[in-house]
Amino acid sequence: MRTAISKIVMPLFLASVLTACANQIGGFTANEKPSTPEKPSGPGGSEETTNNLDLRIGDQFYIDSAITNIFGDDSDTQNLIDQELRSQTAVFGGACDPYEKSASRTFKSDGTTLSFTPSCPSLSDTTATSIPKNSPVREAYRMRLCLKLSSSLTAVGRAIQKAKNLDHDITSNDLSLISNSELESVYELFYFPAEPTQDIISSLSDLVARVEVLNSSQPEPIQSLESWKAVLMTLCASPDWQAL
Amino acid sequence: MKRRDFIQKLLMGSGIGMLGSSGILEALIRSRLLTVYASDDSDFRSYFSVIFNGGVQWWYACPMNAKGEGIVSNPYVSTNFKNGQPLYETVALSSGGKTFHMPSVWGMSIPLAAGGSGSLANLLEHSGFMRGFVQPVDNHGINRLALQLPETTARSIPGIIADQAIKNSSPIPSIFGSYGDERAFRSSSASNLSINLSSSNLLESEVLKPFLPDGEIASILQKRDQFAVEYSNVLASLKQKGVDTNERIQNLFGTSQAFEDLIYRDFGDLASIWNSLYAKYNDLQMRCTDMSELFTESIPSATTPAEYRKINSANHQLINADLRTIIQPTTRLGNLSASLALAEYMISKGLCPSILVALGGVGGMRFEYSTGTTRTNETMIMDAHDIGVLPSMVGLSFAFRSLFAGLNELMNQLRSSGMGDRSIIHISSEFSRSPKADGSGSDHGTKAVTSMLLSDRIKSPFIAGNILRNLSSATYPGTWLYAAGNPNFENGTSTFAMGNHASSVCSALKVESPTPNFQSTIFETPSGGIQPVLGDGDIVDS
Q: Measuring CA to CA, which of B68, B216, B351, B406 is 20 to 30 A from B60?
């Protein structure tokens, strides 16, 4: 049983600043053009081979566990996971028990999850594969989850708390320029026990630097928070942490 | 903001400091806007499986008989409608150098989407019928499963196709639409998407929803695009480390990139596309409701209740009118329009190669009956147990006419997208029906399972499987597709099993069978046509 975590504290000023920034799409300016990214590849002319027949990846329970461990079990976070992951058993694999009751969740007074009973809404969910393979539709749901979590203040707050190994809810005082050791820590949230290469840290540092430039007109807590969001979004979006 | 509006704004370089994204998205859109996700595997075939829930009574009355032997009529029919009875006439159709005695509906016209009408019989050229399969148990749900999953520990037919789809990076490996028996999906590794066919704007609300970054997702992607280069570089470094550990990791990134391509794809105005497709197939159904062609002769006048067509064996409510009028202008075959619209879009675009739908019943049939001096018009519940063979014939003739009108249009669309001979359409039901001797209805004909394949891959029509000429049963006499032995097949004179059925369908799909110990009843010739292993089936005496 996880230790109870009190509700995340997000100073009012920080929340209000974030709200004010919401309509500025991160406060970017027209002069800050990124370069064109690599030409995408995919079906219908892909340069990548997408035959992943023998590569084992996790089912819904594995993904659920990993995501919850990183982003926490606060009610709104768990609702996102319900919405994009647990409701798609047939897509992610991992058969559920048809004799379970309908999905239900009880919360502690602080908003964290006390218990969750997943649903098994479709008969096909009882026969979902235990050896799932990746597909664009699975990626779609996984990416939707990652994108939503990395824009959720609650979920991002929990991930920062975890990466910084804080024993208290984060406050604006905890937000500062992301150090390389923190980048290593957040990498290890997804890839434990692997350690990042220097290239990974370097590219993550470049990402952080870019986001800070994009948000240079914002107050410091916003700059750092946006950097954390970008790092978490990118690491979460990478598909390889699903590999077993 | 709608996704297309979002993209348009970006392409115009308008709005809120987003000019930087224009180049990225423009490149993406230019490269992907018109992409059709067709597999590179030229022998990979799409599978559209249509299941009639409830068993199809229609088949028993007029078994397909390639060789023209006489069939034995149900005695109720031969007694009460012996002279001039039109309903049980077969229509002789010639195709591929053979004559087929088909159910009367095959003699009807079908409406064309382009306007006017054509002959339903034209579909025969690309049709193959497999009959005389035996279901081991008698249960609606289990028997529907057995059509796709004849061995519970093996993969199912849609599952096998979905596993192939994974290799080809099809965006959605498999779709089950309002089937209720999704347990029939079993693959080694793939997934399926269960959708509700009765949803409005199905493409946007259900099928493509995960690929449509509306609302919050679109906003987040806008932000992400501002650091697209750095984002890509991180992914590249992660990929490199992953590949150094396990080279197959790169495949995960390939699939992930396929998703990225899809979320930037302009699917167009999906609501309009869906409405147009749905309306097209719904209009075809509506134009099938005029059933005047079904009888070419006048309705025989009835003077006693026995001569009327029974509606319900319990109360013998009668139709005192032209039977054909039970098909009303609003009568529809459940889920048909949505199913066909879904198949056309998803298969022709290469978005999903395995679609299974259940059609449900015929809704909106109404009949007139008398209660004393009052005449009432009420909705008709089409339970073939009690409905009576003749009203059932009318209802199912409408159902099949509507289905074939829609499939004719679907075939045309698949051809125009180059998928005509790369798609197999499979029409089946959990069993056939055994007609009651008194004509009041029918029971489950579990030893008479029939299914039909429709594809340009079939170059000449065929019938596989022997049936009995006369089931000498007091309750269910006559010729109604009851399985007969097939000498020279597998172990001698065995009747076909559901394993043979699965192997046959998979043979047409050119994938491995989930029941490899059961021989296929059909095979593909070197020139690409599909033919029965034993030649066309017979109607045999014992």
A: B406
How far apart are alpha carbons B150 and B135 in whole angstroms? 10
Sign of CA dihedral B138, B144, B150, B151: negative
Q: Does the pLDDT at position B29 exceed 50?
A: no
User: Which has more pLDDT, B31 or A202?
Assistant: A202
CA end-to-end distance (rounded Å), chain A = 24
Distance of CA A45 to the CA centre of its chain: 30
The 3-state DSSP composition of chain B as helix, strand, coil percent (nearest 5) reads 35, 20, 45
A126: CB partners within 8 A, 6+ apart: A95, A96, A97, A98, A120, B183
Quick check: bond before B526 cis, omega within 30? no
Closest-CA distance, B23 to chain A, in angstroms, reads: 6
Give me the residues paired with residue B109 across strands. B119
pLDDT digits (tens, 9 = 90+) for B266-291: 899 999 999 999 999 999 999 999 98
A183 contacts in chain B (CB < 8 Å): none
Mean pLDDT across chain A, nearest whole number?
Answer: 77
Of B191, B223, B239, the CB nearest to A93: B191
| ipTM field | 0.78
**Residue A207: alpha-carbon gap to chain centroid:** 17
CB contacts of B169 in chain A (<8 Å) are: 42-43, 46, 50, 135-136
CA distances from A160 to A63, A186, A227, B226, B349 (A): 19, 8, 11, 22, 43
Mean pLDDT of A149-174: 92
Q: What percent of chain A has pLDDT over 90?
A: 45
Q: Has residue B375 got a pLDDT over 60?
A: no
Mark yes or no for CB contact A41/B189 under 8 Å: no
